[in-house]
Write a structure and sequence with these properties.
About 25% of the residues lie in helices and about 35% in strands. It is an alpha+beta fold and about 180 residues long. The protein has a single domain (about 1-180), classed as START domain (Alpha-D-Glucose-1,6-Bisphosphate, Chain A, domain 4), CATH 3.30.530.20. The strands form two sheets. It has a seven-stranded antiparallel beta sheet with strand order 1-7-6-5-4-3-2, with helices on one face. A two-stranded antiparallel ribbon has the order 8-9. Strand 5 and strand 6 form a beta hairpin. The radius of gyration is 16 Å and the shape is globular. It starts with a strand and ends with a helix.
């Protein structure tokens, strides 16, 4: 397993930061290759990502979910495990710490190039998340308690996603190969 460890400070209250992060269906707004995240009835997550022309799907179990403190997950196919923690560092300031263990064997390509891409992917996601929350795209900072949850979660549509490098091609699972 390879490891990515990144942090960022967000100028918003910990509750708003945590609520924005745990709106899993909104991940495509700030995560480059993520097309969709569905919360399943058993509280697991179904991920759909597009890397170049490949559509990759996997399920992840929530391992830990402590409000305003942390969220951790583990992909059922072993491709990754991760944890995001939230720390109040001041009035309307929150540190977001993102740790990701991933299996480089789950991806085709040079391991160092994959490691660089994963690190960049996490940094870019954190930067985009910070911008989203600080711009108050969720409407929760100024409008807490107003409107429905779905209205509070409304976010702008994401910009077109740049294609990933040619060498970064996920390996298909046996199920994905059978379906293709």
């Amino acid at each position: 397993m390879e490891f990515v460890d990144k942090s960022i400070e967000v100028n918003a209250d910990i509750r708003d930061v945590y609520d924005a992060w745990t709106a899993f269906e909104d991940f495509p707004t700030f995560m480059e290759v993520v097309e969709r995240v569905d919360v399943l009835p058993d509280d697991s997550l179904h991920w759909v990502a597009v890397i170049e022309d490949d559509i990759i799907e996997w399920d992840a179990d929530m391992v830990e979910h402590i409000p305003e403190q942390s969220v951790s997950w583990e992909a059922r196919d072993g491709r990754e495990t991760g944890k995001v923690t939230f720390e109040k560092i001041g009035t309307n300031q929150t540190k977001v710490h993102y740790q990701l263990d991933y299996d480089p064997e789950a991806w085709d390509g040079d391991p160092q190039e994959i490691a660089d891409w994963m690190s960049t992917r996490v940094s870019d996601a954190l930067d985009a998340f910070k911008g989203l929350v600080e711009e108050d795209a969720y409407g929760s900072l100024d409008d807490a308690g107003k409107g429905t949850d779905s209205e509070k979660r409304r976010v702008p549509s994401s910009p077109p996603r740049p294609s990933s490098p040619w060498w970064f091609r996920p390996r298909r699972t046996r199920h994905e190969q059978d379906v293709a």
